[in-house]
Amino acid sequence: MAALTSFCSKYARPVCCALLTPVLQASGAGPERTKLVCELIEDSLEPEYVRLVLSQVLEMPWSEELITVVQTLLGRQVELAPELFNLLVLKLCRLAQEFARSMSYTKLMMAVLTIYSSNITPAHRRHLSGALDLNHTALRKSLQAALEQMAPR
Prior knowledge:
The chain is an all-alpha fold. 71% of the residues lie in helices and 0% in strands. The protein is built from nine helices and no strands.
């Protein structure tokens, strides 16, 4: 793992484009592969490459494993350009029905609402409110409360 982390740190852009993206797109990623990708993201990617991987992930079909990767990316708390944040919010809203019972998705939504609360505009609030109405997990009310606590801009 140390050798792979060192390699990824030294050749970050090629790793993002030639290794991480194909690994994430491969079917049947499984928990081991997801854990490896998350460790590489946490240990070896600079903020610009975290944003690059996030932009690539937003174009992929999502699974529970990919949600875990997105949580790891957002956990790095890098600053996101407004365009990238808009794409993230729209993707989350489009997937609300599909992941209505997913705790991973719910935790990801909570991370967006807390880590990136300053990025959320009134338009985002409207979209996210509709997405949260579809949520069927025990954290639904917590998500709605977090969204309601944000002051409108």
